[in-house]
Amino acid sequence: MDLDARHLRTAFGSFVTGVTIVTVGGPVPHAMTANSFTSVSLAPALLLVCVAKDASMHHRLETQEHLGISVLGEGHHREARWFADPTRPRGPAQFADVPTEIGPRTGVPLISAAIATFECRRREMYWGGDHSIVLAEVIDAASPHPDPSALVCLRGKLHRWSARSPVGLEEDSWAT
User: Fold this and answer.
1) Is the dihedral of CA 55, 87, 29, 145 positive or negative?
2) What pLDDT digit, counting tens, does each position of 12-42 carry?
3) In 3-state terms, what secondary structure has residue 171?
4) Is the full-model pTM beyond 0.85?
5) CA–CA separation, 49 vs 24, rounded Å?
6) Which of 1, 62, 77, 121 is the 20 to 30 Å CA partner of 47?
């Protein structure tokens, strides 16, 4: 039996995920929004992110040694949408209106005021259907702005999750 892609996407979207920005530096810095991110191991420190093989980030991850991950808080909905937009400018221009910092260990761009940031070294890329699973070694991690309200994705919409709320998940008016 073949699965209907629309129904499969809806089912996958029923799982709440955090929202991150994946970045690479180099001569042509680049970024993308990703919600397929997870920790893998503490020793060694490993994480993974999944990237569509037809995404412009995919080739950059194959050719760049280092990548950054910025975990977004509720105040980063504009950045999440911007880096998910395939029509945005490429290269340094895509960062023009986005506050970023340069990772001290790897030189990758990181989103300013992120809840947490990771500077990583790409270890492996594994086949995963129409995506690649990027396994990365964490070189440095920081939680400079531990905002208790995280940006999360549920059913294709952005929400905030607040540790202060008795239920936790609150949909904002800016979610579409």
Assistant:
1) negative
2) 889 999 999 999 998 889 999 999 999 999 9
3) coil
4) yes
5) 13
6) 77
